[in-house]
Amino acid sequence: MPGSEAGRKIIAIEEHFMHSELARHFKPASANPPHIERRLYDFAGIRLEEMDAAGIGLQVLSHQSPGSQRLEDAVAMEACRASNDALAAVIREAPDRFAGFAMLPTMFADAAADELQRAVQELGLKGAMIHGPSRGRFVDGPDFSAIYARAAALDVPVYLHPAMPDKAVAETYYAPYSESHPDLLRAAWGFGVEAGTQAVRLILSGIFDKHPGLKIVLGHLGEAIPFLLPRIDDSLKRKGNAPVCFAEVFKSNFYVTTSGFFSTNALTCCLEELGPDRVLFAVDWPYADNVQGVTWLSGAPIAADVKQAIFYDNAINLLKL
Q: How is the chain split among helix, strand and coil, in percent rounded to 5?
């Protein structure tokens, strides 16, 4: 495996877990099939076995979607703290195998910023993950700016994870095909549209003018933005649009991962648009297979030093591992 051949361990940075104190607030608590559910709650058994089988040395853990962005106000703060504490305890048991992203109560932005700081400075977590809109509101508005200000000050990334489309959007744009093809709402289309829209809105909000060092991570090879980047940038420069250097901001402040998207054509596009320092390896375990992900990237027709950057170096640099 590449990890042993290079004398270094492969780092996968979008790998999920479940914590019962957070998950119990969702009804139903989980819609995952049993084999997925077992893996989400496992840390010392099948998770490590499947990591070892693929040559993955370290997973950066993040809580399964939906995250705290759909929790009721009364439970959000306590549930996030409990989840972050539990994640930190898992990491302490195996610090050579796990790192993690914090869960934040984004509906309380100042408290979320403080929880991010606690998670990073006291618990040793490496940033935060946000799962889509916060109680139906995209998290690019001024009410959420404290979170990004604190992330920039701490020099840690915020990972924007997809979420299910809003019910009204689902009914208008995806029905009736979402009944016959339910994954249309998820990985097949809806997830990418939701996360990509959040990223576009974040750039247009001007938050990167205020915090030029802010780092944002997108999974699934950038939720199609790298492919569309020249067209988006050219269109937003047309007369009548407020000035924005969209492509410049995306290339300077965003990172993308390979989570659940093992396509050489898509990877090539990302490398050409963003460069080799902005692409990181991820599997999206347990929804995608570790061996498949590692085998694909190991065999991709790209230079060995670029593979090394994607497998290890970029995660080490971004997350200070």
A: 55, 10, 35
Which two tokens mark 110? 């100042």
pLDDT tens readout for residues 249-258: 999 999 999 9
- Please give the single-letter amino acid code of residue 121: Q
Token couple for 149: 């200000």
| DSSP at 67 | -
| Predicted model pTM | 0.95
- Please give the Cα distance from 293 to 115 (Å, whole number): 33
> Per residue in 261-290, pLDDT tens?
999 999 999 999 999 999 999 999 999 999
Residue 234 makes CB contacts below 8 A (sequence gap 6+) with none
Q: 58 - beta bridge partners?
A: 11
What CA–CA distance (Å, rounded) separates 261 from 179? 24
Query: Is 114 marked active-site?
Result: no
Centre a 10 Å sphere on the Cβ of residue 2 and count the other Cβ atoms it contains.
21
Give the chain's domain count: 1
Kind and range of the H or E run holding 35? helix 34-40
For position 127, which CATH number holds? 3.20.20.140
Domain containing residue 199: 2-319
Q: Rounded to an integer, what distance in angstroms lies between the CA atom of residue 114 and that of residue 118?
A: 6
Q: Count Cα neighbours of 256 within 13 Å in the Cβ-side half-sphere.
A: 29
Catalytic residue among 96, 183, 284, 289: 284
